[in-house]
Design a protein that fits this description.
Elements: H1 8-25, H2 31-38, H3 42-49, H4 52-72, H5 78-93, H6 96-108, H7 113-140, H8 149-161, H9 164-169, H10 180-194, H11 198-207
Length: 208
Amino acid sequence: MSAQLEHPACVSRILEAALDVFSEQGYGASIEQIASRASVARQTIYNHFGGKQALFETALERAIAALFETVKAEDAELRERLIRFGMMFRARVLSPRSIRLHRVLTGEAPRVPDLARSFFDRCFLGSTAQMASVFERAMRDGELRRDDVHETARLFMENLIGLDRWRVLLGGEPPDPAGEKELVTRLVDHFLRAYAPPAERAVRSARS
């Protein structure tokens, strides 16, 4: 690693610049353009990441890992962490940069199938695996009923995004930020009722 990249802030700047440039100009964007946006030398990026695809993949992995830090922190009850995650997840997935990147990669998938496959593996399968690890622990601790953790994770995240992602991808208006907290809270509460452990469901049924 070059001395310039020993500073974590420099690495973060390069990875953020990479996602910005790729989302704006597609995978045809050059390392020179990314280096210029990050205010580093082109060779610095080559020395550390080796090439464009490795840079893109590392940027995706870093962004996903940061997104899941909040729900894995275990500094609060599961419900609170899921609400916090849901707010961040929707903000990230529905952001202008994510929507642009999604459109770019969808358009370039036939031309660069390896890149599209990498994006799918890291963003969709990788995110599902990260959330599955959270639910695996919650099921083991009795906070959720036992079920297939990967299917549970996929259903939870798809429910969070719903039709909003498709609406925005197809040019519709993004959700009103003022209603996000209420929406996410409602979705999380529906999920927790559906996946409540047997004992808790029995108590709820007796009360109703």
